[in-house]
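Handout, section 4.2: multi-component inputs.
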Amino acid sequence: MIIVLKKSATEEEIEHVSEKIKSLGLSVHISKGEERTLIGAIGDEAKLAETPLEALPGVEKVMPIVKPYKLVSKEMSDGPTIIDINGVKVGGNKIQVIAGPCSVETQDLLTDCAKKVKESGATLLRGGAFKPRTSPYAFQGLGEEGLKYLKKASEETGLPVVTELMDPRDMDLICEYADVIQIGARNMQNFRLLMEVGKTKKAVLLKRGMASTVKEFLMSAEYIASQGNTNIILCERGMRTFETSVRNILDYSAVPVLKEETHLPVFIDPSHAAGRWDFVPALSKAAVAVGADGLLIEVHSDPENALCDGAQSLKPTKFSTLMGELAKIAEAVGRTI
Amino acid sequence: MIIVLKKSATEEEIEHVSEKIKSLGLSVHISKGEERTLIGAIGDEAKLAETPLEALPGVEKVMPIVKPYKLVSKEMSDGPTIIDINGVKVGGNKIQVIAGPCSVETQDLLTDCAKKVKESGATLLRGGAFKPRTSPYAFQGLGEEGLKYLKKASEETGLPVVTELMDPRDMDLICEYADVIQIGARNMQNFRLLMEVGKTKKAVLLKRGMASTVKEFLMSAEYIASQGNTNIILCERGMRTFETSVRNILDYSAVPVLKEETHLPVFIDPSHAAGRWDFVPALSKAAVAVGADGLLIEVHSDPENALCDGAQSLKPTKFSTLMGELAKIAEAVGRTI
Amino acid sequence: MIIVLKKSATEEEIEHVSEKIKSLGLSVHISKGEERTLIGAIGDEAKLAETPLEALPGVEKVMPIVKPYKLVSKEMSDGPTIIDINGVKVGGNKIQVIAGPCSVETQDLLTDCAKKVKESGATLLRGGAFKPRTSPYAFQGLGEEGLKYLKKASEETGLPVVTELMDPRDMDLICEYADVIQIGARNMQNFRLLMEVGKTKKAVLLKRGMASTVKEFLMSAEYIASQGNTNIILCERGMRTFETSVRNILDYSAVPVLKEETHLPVFIDPSHAAGRWDFVPALSKAAVAVGADGLLIEVHSDPENALCDGAQSLKPTKFSTLMGELAKIAEAVGRTI
Amino acid sequence: MIIVLKKSATEEEIEHVSEKIKSLGLSVHISKGEERTLIGAIGDEAKLAETPLEALPGVEKVMPIVKPYKLVSKEMSDGPTIIDINGVKVGGNKIQVIAGPCSVETQDLLTDCAKKVKESGATLLRGGAFKPRTSPYAFQGLGEEGLKYLKKASEETGLPVVTELMDPRDMDLICEYADVIQIGARNMQNFRLLMEVGKTKKAVLLKRGMASTVKEFLMSAEYIASQGNTNIILCERGMRTFETSVRNILDYSAVPVLKEETHLPVFIDPSHAAGRWDFVPALSKAAVAVGADGLLIEVHSDPENALCDGAQSLKPTKFSTLMGELAKIAEAVGRTI
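Output:
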C-alpha cells in the first residue's frame, strides 16, 4: 500500500502514519520526492484494510497495490475452472446455453419448453419458482410447486435445472430440486445468501449487480469461495446507465477483463439486459464473439401470456434459428455450442 | 395506459392489441392521429402490468399513466406520517438526528459515544451488530453481543436504538433489542427481508440503493407497507456515479421529489455518501436546508482505531460543533433540531 | 402529445391547458379516467416543443408521442444509406475498417502504417492533426502539417482520409485534405460545428458523446442533416459509467437500436472504449457479430513511443491477425470485411 | 508515479520499464515486495504523461501521484480568488446571485425582469443570445440583437451581463456586450473555445459537463488559465444519472471538494439541474448551506410563454420570496447574499 502525503504534511504527521502502519506489523519505506512524500507499507496489506489511513492528518490519498480477492483470482489456479453439472461441462471449449421461461407456470408449458430448447441445443434448463419482483402486487412465483415442475421437466429431458434462491430459509428446498443455484443481480451483495451457498458444493450462477463493479463482482464470488465452494459461474446481465432505449447496457468488456482476473467461467444474459426479445439475437451473437463461456436466454412457448417478462422471451422457433446462427460464430472463434 | 402503435401497424395488429386489453377487463379507446394511432386502456391499469403489450406486433411503446405505488403515495394520507419511537417523533417539525458508530465494538466505547451524542442533541442511537462488508475477510460485526451493548447504552441514555437487519433469520433477535430496524442500501430490493419487516409494527429505516430510482425506492417501501407496516423512514444515502472524489453522490433533489410523492419522512445519510468525515458538516447543512426530516451521522470516539468506516466518522467534539451549526440552519428554515 | 393531469386538477386548470394547446393550432381530446384526466393534443406536436406544458398548474406529466428527429429516421428512407467515399461504400454488406494512428506524427511513420493497414484489409485511413486533449500541456497535434502527411499517405495508398475537426475556423483547411470529417465525442453537441459540417457534402463520422443517449445522438445527426448533408456515419465509442476496469463501456445494443431507428450506417470504435490494446480484438469481434457496419481501430507501428494513446494502439502485425479473425465472423453473419 | 508490475513480470521487463522512465529524464526507485514489484519514477511526472507505461509488457497498473492541474490548484494561491466584475466581487463572503431569463426575447421583458431581480437582490444579469439547443428546429436565440437588449438592460439597472459563447467566431461580439462569458456544460471540453476565452481578461463562468469528473472540470479551467486568464467561476449544474425524477442530479459534494482543490469561486445552478421551477427553492437553499459562492437562477416574467426552458423559470415574485429565505440561510452560515 502506498500512502501519499499532502504537500503540507509535517514531520510529526509522517511519523504518526508510520507508527500506525508499524503497529499493525508491517514495515515502512519513506520516499521524499520533489512534490510529495510517499510512505510504502510493506507486508500483509490485508491488515491495513480496516484502518482509516486516509483519515489521518496529513494524508492525501491511499493507493492499494494488492487485489482484495484471492481464491477466485487467476493466480490461485493452474487453468480455467471447469464445472461439471451432471455431465454438462461449464467453462470448457463448448459454450453452454441455459434456456427456459422466466418463471415456471404450468408443468405442460415448462416440459414443452424444455423439450424444445433441448432439441435446439440448450444444455441447461432455467425457470424461476421464487421471483424477485419490483412490485409486491406482481406474480411472485409458484414456490415449491414450481420446483417440482422443474424437477419433472429435468427428468424428462435430462437437462440440469438452474433456479433462483432469494432467501437463506429456502436453501434446503432449493438444493433438493436444483442443480445450479442462481443468485440474482439484486442479491449480488446479499452477503448472508452468498455465505449460505458457499457452504454447499452445488454450482452457483452468480449474476452481477446492475451497478456493481467487476471488482465487487469478484469480491462477491470470493464470499462464496471463502466458505469452500468454488463452483461459481459468473454472469454479466447489464449495467444501469442513463440510456433508456434498452433496459440495461451489457458490459461486454467484462468478459476479457474477467478472463484476465479469474479462473471462473463467464456467462452473458442478453434477455434481461435487452428487455426486448427482438434484440436478443444480436446481443447473443456478440456474447459468443467476445468470448463468453455461456448464455442465459429466456424462452417461452407463449410470450404474450407469460406471467413474467414475456416481452423479452424468444419463442422456441426463434430460439432454434438463433442457435443455428450462434453455431457459426462459435466456429469462427474456435469453439462449439 | 396509452399504447402507441408503429406507423406501420396494420388494422389487424390494432385489433389484436385491443382484444388483449379487453380480455383483461379494461375498455379501449382508439385515437387515430396524423402520425400515430394510440390505444387508451381504460380501467384498472394494474391488471395490465404483467402483460407484455410492448412485445405485441405493431406496438411502438407503452406509457403507464398511474403510479405503481399506492399505500405509500401521498394521495393515501391526510398529511405527513409521524412515527413515534419511544417518544421521539419522526416526521414532524423537529429534525431528528441518528448518531453513533458504524459498528458496535465495546460496551464502554458505545456507551461513551451514546452519552456524548445525546448531550449534543442526537435523539436516536445507531450502531451495527451485523455488518454487510464487501470483503468476506473484513470485520462482520459482534452479532448478538453487539445488540446487548446497544440495549445497555440505550437504557443508560434513553436513546432508542437503530440497527441493521441483514437476514430474515435474525428477525426475532433484532426485534428484541432494536427500536428501529435498518434495511441497508444493498438490501433495498431484498424483497423477502422487506416482507419480513412489513409484518411487525417496528419502525423501519429503509435506505435507498446506490443505483435505485426514486420510483423503485418507493416500491420497496410499498413492499413493507403491503404487509401492514407503514412506520417507514426513507433514507437517501448517495448514488453510484462516475465521480470518484467522494464515495457516492447524494441526491438532494430526492427530498422535494419524495415530499411530493409520499407521506413518509425522509432522512439523509451524509457519512456513507462522503466516505470522509471532513465533508460531513457541509453535506449535513445542505440536508437540513433542502428539507430533510432527519440525519444519520456516524460518530466514533476514536475513529483511527474504529473497526469499520473510521474515515467517515466524526469525533464527538466535531459532532457537537456541527449540531450547533445545524440548529441555526434549522431555524432559518423554520424548524428545530 | 398526451398531458396527464394531477388527480387534484380543477376544471379551470384543465380548461387552461386545453386553451394553451388550441392557441398553438392543435386540437384537443379530453379523456376522464377513473384515476386521471388525460388531454390528447392532436396536430403538429413540434409546435408544442417550446411550450412548458409540464409547468402549467394541474399538470402531472407530459408524454410526447412523436420522435423529435425526422430526416435521419428510418421512415424517411427507402433503405439503408450507402455513402460512397472515393469508391469505398459505407453502409452496405461489406464491413469497412478505418485504421491508423491516434495522431499524425511523422510522414514516414504514417505512410508505413497506412501501407500496412491497407495490406491487412483496412479501407480508410485515420489520423489526428488537431487533437482534443484533456490537458492543455499535452501534445495538441501537428495541425496543417499533419494534414499534409495524411494527404500524402492517402495518395500513396489510395486510402481515403478520416480526420477530426475541432473548430469551425478550420473547416476549409480540413475540407482541403480530408475525405471524411470526424466530429469527436466531446463535440457531439457542439451545435455550431454540426451546422458547419452540415453545409458541405463531405461524409461526416459523428461519434456519440460519452454520456449521450441514443436519442440525443440522433438529434445531433439531425442537426447535420437539417443543413442538407445526410452523408453521416454514426460511431459508438463507449459510455461513461462507474466501472473502472476499462475506460468506457461500449453500448453494443445501440447497434440494433439504431438499425431500427435510422437509415444511417453505424460503426464501433473499440480502441477508445477499451483504452488498452489487448482488449481491442475481443471487442472488435463482438462489434462485427452484433451487426456494426464498420470499425475504427487505432494502429501504430511503435506504440511505446506514440505521442498519444499508445496504450490502446495495436501493432500492424496484431491488426493483421485480427483482420483475419474478423473475416471469419463477418462470414458467419453473412457479410464481408 | 508508481508503476505496479504483474506478479509474473520478468527481470527483463522490469529493466525495460526502468530504461523507458530514465530515457525521459526521471530517476527510478525499485521496490520488491512480497506480492509485487513496484517502480517509483522520481522527477517531473508530467514528462511521463504521454508515455503508455501501462502498455509495456509486465506492467499491471500505473498510479500517478501528482495532480495534473497546476495554475488552478490551491497550492498556487495564497487564498481564494476574488473576481471583481464592475464592482461585484465574486468569491468573497457575499454570495452573488446571477438571475434572468434562459433566453433573451424582447427588450421589454428583459429590462422588466432585470429590474425585478435587482430589487430582490440579484447582482448579475443572465440571458442567452446564442442558445445551444438539442433540436435544430428549436429557437436558437436572437444573436446580436439579444446582446444589444442585454446591454441596454444592464445600463438601466447597473447589473453586469453574463451570456454564453458557443463559437470562437463570436468571441469579439460577445466581448463587446458581456461582462462575464459563459461556457456551457456541453462545451466544457470544447478546448478551442476554452483557449479563446483564456486569451482575454474577461471573467468566465465555466459550467461543469453533465458527465465530467471534478478532475476534468479543473483541467478545463486549467486550459483557460494556461492562456493567462484566471478570472474563472466554476459552476456545478448537475450530473447525468439513471434517475428520471429530475433532469440532472446536482453534485453538492463538489463544493467542499473544489474548495479543497482550487482557489476559484464555485457556483451552483439549480434551475437547469431541476428542470422544474418548484424544486428550485429547496435546491437553492441547500446550495447556500453547502458553501457555494453564488447561484445561477432562471427568472422569467411570463414562464408560460417563454421561448426556452419556461418550466424551470421562477416568476419574479417567487424569486423575491426565495431571496428572503436564502438570506436567512446565508446568515446561518456566516455569509451575506
